[in-house]
């Protein structure tokens, strides 16, 4: 096998109350990586489409190839030669797990080309290194679901303990990306390091409620638990019209609405596709009233995560 094409989906991280510990993948969009062996040593990025020339071409600085270098080092493969083409199908600094999708597609493609020496779970720490390259923080709530699919819970980072939980089949995600850019690094920098006991108790209740609500398909419990008293109040100031857009989603049928990852994208969860569409149209209309263009994505929860497209 000399060439591989892999796809890794966009993701919604945090899911309201679960900062750095909850995330799920959606069906589309996703980044696509083409990986080929070549005679000359080293990894080269020969082309990136869809980034308007903005992403680093240096393999160590791009999350798609940075993760491949980590994997090759771990496997002690030294005399290698590979070329990489990245099709960037989502905006940068979007809150849609853009850097994560590239990292996951990269590490899955390389593992496949090498004959799958590692399992999907074992690839996770390498994909997380892609997040360190992009934002300085190796969080797993985007790479986890993009790699594994489903609704992911990260119980612990040290040691890494990650699992997926079942979600109701009729649960749909609305993802609205306003035409603004927020870097994860900046959105993490503004967070406070101290959290009050009162807020910790409220957040723990919602985290427990959301997990139970998803596992029991209890839509009212899901709705009541999609509340973030710690991160959203700080970060929402970076998103124009945040409150109005959130209100528009909920008053048009969504169970709840919050910031996707570190923003500016906002997501909502709804029971049924029709509610997800109605919520999305209302959210877009509210952004449009403020003169902000946006893109809308409606999706069920992607249960499979990254996939190989072609050998
Ligand atoms: N392949 C890549 N795709 C996207 N961003 C990359 C990639 N490689 C490096 N980066 C860098 O990562 C930064 C964007 O990552 P960031 O985490 O801020 O955005 P995001 O992945 O869309 O957000 P989020 O993680 O909140 O969903 C940019 O500085 C970009 O140059
Ligand atoms: N949990 C991370 C996700 C970034 O997409 C954050 O909110 O900073």
From TrEMBL:
Primary site of residence: cytoplasm
Domain GHMP kinase N-terminal: from-to ranges: 62-150
Classification via InterPro entries: GHMP_kinase_C_dom, GHMP_kinase_C_sf, GHMP_kinase_N_dom, GHMP_knse_ATP-bd_CS, Homoserine_kinase, Ribosomal_Su5_D2-typ_SF, Ribsml_uS5_D2-typ_fold_subgr
EC numbers, comma separated: 2.7.1.39
Keywords assigned by UniProt, alphabetized: Amino-acid biosynthesis, ATP-binding, Cytoplasm, Kinase, Nucleotide-binding, Threonine biosynthesis, Transferase
Catalytic reaction annotation: L-homoserine + ATP = O-phospho-L-homoserine + ADP + H(+)
Family: Belongs to the GHMP kinase family. Homoserine kinase subfamily.
Protein name: Homoserine kinase
Pathway recorded for this protein: Amino-acid biosynthesis; L-threonine biosynthesis; L-threonine from L-aspartate: step 4/5
Coiled-coil boundaries: none
Keyword Nucleotide-binding part of the UniProt annotation: yes
Domain GHMP kinase C-terminal: 213-288
NCBIfam families hit by this protein: PRK01212.1-4, thrB
Compartment(s) where it occurs, according to its Swiss-Prot or TrEMBL record: Cytoplasm
Species for this entry: Dyadobacter sandarakinus
Described purpose of this protein according to its UniProt entry: Catalyzes the ATP-dependent phosphorylation of L-homoserine to L-homoserine phosphate.
Enzyme class name: transferase
GO molecular function: homoserine kinase activity
Positions that bind ATP: 91-101
Database matches in HAMAP family: Homoser_kinase
